[in-house]
Amino acid sequence: MLIVPIRRDGGGPIYAQIYEGIRRMILENSLPVGSKLPSKRKFAEHLGVSNTTVELAYEQLLAEGYITSKPRSGFYVQDIGELAYAQPADDQKAASPRLPEKKKYRHDFSPGRIDTGAFPFDEWRRQAKNIIDRASADFLLLGHPHGDPELRREIATYLNHSRGVRCTPEQIVIGSGTEQLMPLVIRLLGPFTVYAVENPGYPLTHHLFRQNDRMTVPISVDGQGIDVGVLEESGADAVYVTPAHQFPTGAVLSANRRNRLLNWAAEKPGRIIIEDDYDSEFRYGGIPVPALQGMDRHGRVLYLSTFSKSLMPSLRIAYMVLPEPLLERYSELFAHYSSTVPRLEQQMLAGFMADGSFSRHLNRMRKVYRRKYIALTAALGPYAGFVSHEESQAGMHLRLTVRTSWSAEELVRRAADAGIHVQSASAYSIVRTDREYLPEIVLGFGSIPENDIPGAISLLMDAWGIKKDGTA
Question: What's the whole-model pTM score?
Fold first, then answer.
């Protein structure tokens, strides 16, 4: 009779313990091939369990091929062949990878964060209540692969009125973030396209080009945006730009360079400008800078944007406006794709835009972020002898230049020791020069409460050893 240890106090289902005990004997060859197992009745009596319990264990062993059943004879150990199998010791735990814990800071100047306290929860809840209803059962099914028509219509109207983008709803494709849309663009433009990218620039895009094995050419950025003269000599077929508010420098692409960039695209068939209009809603001085796409007369600008900054990062809704020459090819390539954004969320956002809630929210947030921008620049003012920044009056971050002998990495470390999270601007560069530059720091002010900004800057300057009178 087999000896199978059974724990009746927390060892799991008894049939599973019997199954595991016999399986282990077979694998360790203590039950050789051809060995006959006890009958279910006798084995159950021996173990003090029900016949059903033993039957369940035998059925599992049969199903997995460890034993075979012979009519009117019984159960026998099956030949399972030579397996590269190692049973871990009982006291060994399988090590599962652990994600690094996100450090908590007293003040977090990350550029990707928003003011969550100003989110319009009541309006959003109302949209959810309107949509999540049996009358909306159709939204549980798959919709149009480009996104729901209602949302695409609202986005087209918004872009036309607020950004000067000329498009129809049919040109718009909805996706769950830039990181989902950009790989589609990369496949759309083909395997041999050479991409020019801003240096410094948006790191996620750099990563996506590398991940998809696409050749990139870094193009330097100055106070007027990307250097189009260098682009013209680069041999690139496509260029990724953030013309309204360059990330991370904050530069606005000048009118002259806008014209040169569009002319560059029109000079050769197949050239494309990928315009990322990531935070164009937030401009605090003068009129908004119109989108480059609105100036395009040759179908060479592919427009990208997202609701991450204007509404919430976790919504994961972005969109692109395909130029007409690419629209038919896109539909052919991705005809069998489904939209990656749940339809209920698309419908909630469409309703939020249709009833004016989105426009009202943007107007409120412009005022909120403008006050924070003013508070931040005012708090930096007394330290002007050692820190300076561009006067972009746009977006949700500033780039600081710090006159110090310390490196940017050392400034970041000292800030972290004081409980403040800042980032080095050099982290956004693909190619770093050996020339000696003053360190630059990126300060995102979206999530910092307005009243906390003066104290946070004071604490940061103390960590860097900078005094208000311009001494260090």
Answer: 0.76
DSSP, residue by residue, 197-213? EEES--HHHHHHHHHTT
> Residue 360, CB half-sphere, CA atoms under 13 Å: how many?
10
Question: Which pairing describes strands 397-402 and 440-444: parallel, antiparallel, or unpaired?
Answer: antiparallel
pLDDT digits (tens, 9 = 90+) for 51-101: 888 998 898 888 888 899 988 889 999 887 654 444 555 544 445 556 566
Distance of alpha carbon 285 from alpha carbon 247, whole angstroms? 18
Choose among 332, 361, 338: nearest CA to 349. 361
According to the model, what pLDDT value does residue 103 have? 77
Query: Which tokens hold the place of 245?
Result: 């508010």
**Residue 417 neighbours by CB under 8 Å, 6+ apart:** 463
pLDDT band for position 286 (cuts 50, 70, 90): low
- CA angle, 167 then 351 then 362, to 5°: 75
Backbone angles phi, psi at 302, to 5 degrees: -100, 115
Cα(first)–Cα(last) distance of the chain, in Å? 85
- β-pair type (172-175, 107-108): unpaired
Neighbours of 447 (CB within 10 A): 18
